[in-house]
Amino acid sequence: MSRSAGWLLGVVLVLATAPAAAPGTGVADRVFVNGRVWTGEPTRPMVEAIAVRGTKILALGPSMVMRMLVGKGTEVLDLRGRFVAPGFIDAHMHLLGGGLSLEELRLDEVETLPEVLKRIGEWAGTHPDRHWVTGEGWTYAAFPGGLPTRAPLDAVVVERPAWLVSYEGHTGWANTLALKLAGVTRETADPPNGLIVRDANGDATGALKEDAMDLVARLVPKPLPHEKGRALKRGLVQLAAWGLTSVQQAGLEEEELELLARVLEEEGPTVRVYAALAIARDPTPETLAHQDQLRRRFSSGRLRVGAVKGYVDGVVEAKTAAMFEPYPGGGTGLLNWTQEELDRTVTAYDRAGWQVMLHAIGDRGIDMALTAFERAARTNGTVGRRHRVEHVEVPRLADLPRFKAAGVVASTQALFPYPNRNHLEVYVPTLGPERAHRALAFKAIDDAGAVQAFGSDWPVFTAEVVRGLHTAVTRTTLAGTPAGGWEPAQRLTAEAALRHFTRDAALAAHEEKEKGTLAPGKLADLVVLSQDLLSVAPDRIKDTKVLLTVLGGQDSWRAKEF
Ligand SMILES: [Zn+2]
Questions:
Q1: Rama region for 456: left / alpha / beta (φ>0; ψ in -120 to 50; rest)
Q2: What mean pLDDT, rounded, does the chain reach?
Q3: How far does the centroid of ligand 1 lie from the alpha carbon of residue 316, in Å?
Q4: 274 Cα–ligand 1 center, Å
Q5: Reduced 3-state DSSP string for 407-451
Q6: What is the pLDDT of residues 401-446, one digit of tens each?
Q7: What is the Å distance from ligand 1's center to 393 Cα?
Q8: How far is the CA of 457 from the centre of ligand 1 (A)?
Q9: Helix/strand/coil for 95
Q10: How would DSSP label each residue in 231-266?
Q11: Would you say the pTM of this structure is higher than 0.70?
Q12: Reduced to 3 states, what is the DSSP secondary structure of residue 46?
């Protein structure tokens, strides 16, 4: 049997199960022809054309064969050789924070203190109506000694309180007025799981870590509901422009869930959302019943609730990620739970059928999360819950096989090894050489057979998938430094990186039957790109443009040039 005859037979088989078409209207609603379509399906990785009916893929194959599905009402789109992939899926982000970040002062790409201060001064000048000067995204490397202090901030924000949050959200920077309003004095004790950084006299320097951030953060005016709604809408549109068709929300409050549901309903096609609620410590039967109600209410459509999310530890730069061995200068990080507490809570959620997502970054935190998952499965006799460790930054290499053995998903962030100054001058030295060597070890995680799902942690890093792919494949900055990449043994192939942003991210949300690859019967969620990610030189991946994003057969984003 010739190849094309095989395809024909496939089409006939698919059509046999498809609903009958009205006479003269053709069978497909849309047909994409003449593409280089990477399906993500191992048995048929590359095809030329896709036929869509309604929200789903009807058939895939050679353009000639797919054209047979064209009728009077069918839209035919000539891809002219463009590369097509399954719609991108981001396995870890914060939608509202991301949306809000599009409208706020951002300090992400600013690498020196004078430049940081200049940006803050400018923003303060152009926002005289704001009672607080706020912003986010600063990196530790911008400050001498690795931590900001209030004095230089006092010099640029004089009569208003100022509060600026670090890029990963675990340290805040206050000016003197903000500390005063918060009532922080020499006598103020560190809150549990938090640290007020102090000078030699015991006075607060302006840097507040982890839960000590609340001292000031609770005073900052919260965005109003209409501002949140606007930010979400802006965020959703931006995500579609980056080629995303699904995102996974790493924890949210109920109010935000309701808002998100409303915005998704009002908007046209943008993205699908899989959401995790905030985990409750030792959840009562009432709490579990209430969360279950939300899960049932949001069980289909573009918004699904399926997980709960909690934090085991902190982050590396703030030395709050929980480690077995001390950081240079001392301390082994902060743990938000004892092992027993964590086991109890995870076991309760596991029994109630929830997927549990645990933020764990240090080797000790990761071990604790894995232990809790293993024990829950054993206690309850459950399989296939696909609990997740979020970030998995500095695992012991010996712990990696536990992911596969326990069916735990490694939810990592493709841009986290982005080797900018902050990474090389703060992150790496904070870990020390032995730990840095096994940090963000994407290849080792793959080699251990784990399901590795990529995300962004937006707004910690941009959710621009092309940037994430570039970093995972090259381990260099956009400028190509350091030459050869940081810890180059952990570079991935473009195909592996793509898989983590598509099929594996779908697996991480129990959604692989509907999405993550392109196959008949799956959702017609796909992205058309300006160049072939599988053949372009790695250092050119960054130049890839998203030309078209399709969600359930409908355009959610179309570039002007396409
Ligand atoms: Zn996060």
A1: alpha
A2: 94
A3: 14
A4: 14
A5: CCEEEEECCCCCCCHHHHHHHHHHHCHHHHHCCCCHHHHHHCCCC
A6: 999 999 999 999 999 999 998 899 999 999 999 999 999 999 999 9
A7: 13
A8: 5
A9: helix
A10: HHHHHHHHHHHTTEEEEEEEEE-HHHHHHHHHHHHH
A11: yes
A12: strand
